[in-house]
Every structure is written in C-alpha cells, then in structure tokens.
Write the structure tokens for this entry.
Amino acid sequence: MKIVSIILLALGISFGANAQFKKASVHATGLTCAMCSKATYEALESLPFVEKIDTDLDNTTFILTFKTGAPVSIDAIKGKVEDAGFSVGKLVMTANFDAVSVQNDAHVAFAGSTLHFMDVKNQVLSGDKDITVIDKDFISSKQFKKFSTETTMPCYKTGMMGDCCKTEGAAASKRIYHVTI
Amino acid sequence: MAGNGIAAAQELYVNTEPASNMPANSLGIRLTNKFFNMKHSGDNGMRFEPEVMWGANKRLMLHVLGYASNMMQPSVKLEGGGVYAKYRFLSLDQQHAHFRMAAYVRGAVINNPYYPEMPDGSHAMRPYDNKELDLEGVTSGVNGGIIATQLLHKLALSTTLGYSRYMNNVKDEIPDDFSRSSVNYSLSAGYLVLPVKYKSFQQTNLNLYVELLGKTNTDAVGRGSYLDIAPAVQFIFNSTTRLDLSYRTQLTGDMARNTSNSFLIRVEHNIFNIKK
C-alpha cells in the first residue's frame, strides 16, 4: 500500500511537471571536422538548461535533454551553434503537451515561449510531440524562402510579433517562434 | 541527412588559413617548427613559431605569434613577433556544402639583418642570392587579403589572395635591391581519410592536403615569382589536438631564393569554451 502511494506521488509529480520542452534534436550544418563537432558540443553543454547531450556525429546531430523545470531558450541553442562557427540546419523540439489546442497561423503560449504554428491541421496536442522550428536561420535558406512564400504573415520574416498577429496586451516586439509539426 | 558529405572534407589547412574561424570563446596554442636548407652555407636552418589563437567572437579570431631562428645568425635567436586577425564576413551553410569568405590582416615587427651574419663576421661562404622577403621572421611589414573557402561534398577548396608591404626591420633597412611589396596567392585542397564513419570524439582523424603557394614581388627591383607545392598530412587526436606534417618545394619560378624547400611540423591544442 505504501509503495502504491509512492508511485502515485511520483506520477502526480510528473503530471505536475507537464507543459515543457523535454528534448531538442539539433542538426548543425557547415561542420567539417572533429574539432568543429567537439567545439559545438562543448558550447551546447554550457547552456544552463541542458542536462545531457547525445551525439550522432556522422550526421552532425546533437540530442539535448533538458533539465526538468528549467526555462528553455530556443534562440540560445541557435546562438551556441553559431558561436561555434556553424549553422542550424534543423531543430526539432520534443515538448510535453497537456491537451493544447493548435490551429494554423495561431499563437500558443507554451513553456514561456510563444509558438506560431504554420502548415498544420487544427488539432489537440497531448503527450510528447515533436515540433520543428522553421524560423530564419533554423532551417536552410532555401526552405525559409519556401515557407516565406506560403504565408502571408509578415511576422514569419522577422520572428517578432507584428501587427498581423498582435494579441491584446502583448508587446509588438515579442519573440514568436514559428513551428510546424 | 548531412552524413559523410559534410564530415569528409577538411579545411584545417596546414600552410594557409581557411575562411572559417575557430569557435568563439576558444583558445588554441600552436608550436610550428620549420626546417630548411640554406643554399649560401649548406647548413640546415630552422625556425620556431609559437602561436596563441583566440576566437573573440563567431566572426573574429586573433593570433599572436613569435619567431625564432638561426636563419640570419649562427645560433637560434628570437627574431620578433606578429599579429594576425581574421574576420569572416560571409557564411552560406547548406546540408552538403558551404561557402565562406573572410578578410585578414597580418603584421610583423622583426629584428633581423637582411643578409646572414657568418661566425667570423664575414658574409656568406657562397653568394647569398635571395630576393624573397616574408613576414614570418625575415622582415617587418603588413599583409592583408581575402580568403574564400568552398566545401563541396568530399572536397574542401580554399583560395587566398593577399598583398604585402614590407617595412624596415628594427635595426636594419631593407636593401635597395629588394622588392618592398608582393602579392601572395594560394589554392588549397583538403580531404578526410579517416574515420570513415564518425562515432566518437576519441577517434583519430587523418586528413590529407595539397596546397599551391605562390608569390610575386611587384616592385621593379627584385621582381620575380614562384609557385610552391606543399603536400601535408594531419592527425587530430581527441578532437582537440592536432599534428601537422608538411613538405614544401618549388614547382616553378624566377625569384632568387636562399631556401626553396622546407619541412614543417606543428602541434596545436585547442581549449573550447574557456569562459563557462
């Protein structure tokens, strides 16, 4: 009986710690050498919200596992890769959703960030889902151009909240992450 | 995915710098030794170049160098020092390719005579016939230029074009029969041989390079050109420590040179993320 209550308590805690980013898969481009990968690894390791990093060196991909409850900055991940001298080719965030309703070209406040879903069907997200960041410098410039032509929203080009999507009471300069599923 | 296309080319050139920079917030320490035959005396010359490199930010890197050799006197002595700065202003990264461009400047302050001093105070045993000056220990001066590096699947190609203005050494003036300026140009290719598949940072890398290195003295006096070829082999241990071996010899040219072939050995160690 005691064990059951401990399990229930543990489950309760994990339920309580929902609605957060859990992992990120960062594909870095422009890397040419072991030193480059190592430098990128050590730069990503210095992020305060990263608990551990697994690597797929042959594909220059880093799997970041985030600390529970730590606020995650998507821009900071990109910043570290660029500081190491490279670019982000693809960034997939694994997030734990708690029945979050998602619509195309609509904003969702999530774990301290504002997400703008593009190219998605209306749906309700629950549990662990992968979302791909499609802002400028998070994907190849070719892909960015393709997405740019598919949206009429000017905020996509800047990554900042614009008049197109300004919500009540929010600052116009607020960072918006454009994502797709 | 990127796969081998990205991982298989190398641009950590031995005799030139790529347009890419070292990572921001990292420190590199290098010791380069060059060994060469000196035609005027038949002796072996050697030069030691300690170097500290710093990634100031993602676009700017800085080097400080020292020079010591026995080129102009019977024993090895400190000749002077130099600085090097490189700014990457263009970076187009793709899945299987990248193209980068950088601008660089180099400066050196050297205390050396322009003709070798022999042990008995006399001049060379054989005529000292040399019209080549360089900023790596021979003369003070400045050099600036542009670097472009293209990564194409398995091949990393890089080219440099620069201009040098030579200045008087600390105690000696450049003799009238030397060109006070030159143009330097290079074409470098790099290829990763090992590992075939990247699994861990502990795998030793083996890289092969071939570089073409040219220079033209542009003043009317001392005019002349040469083109050298420099094959090189490189090992990288633990993804942080690098060992370079290179042989450089003249392919063609009409510039008088006291030394036209040399060996290079270099050890470099990198410390990433110096400020946590």
Remarks:
- Chain B is about 0% helix and 55% strand.
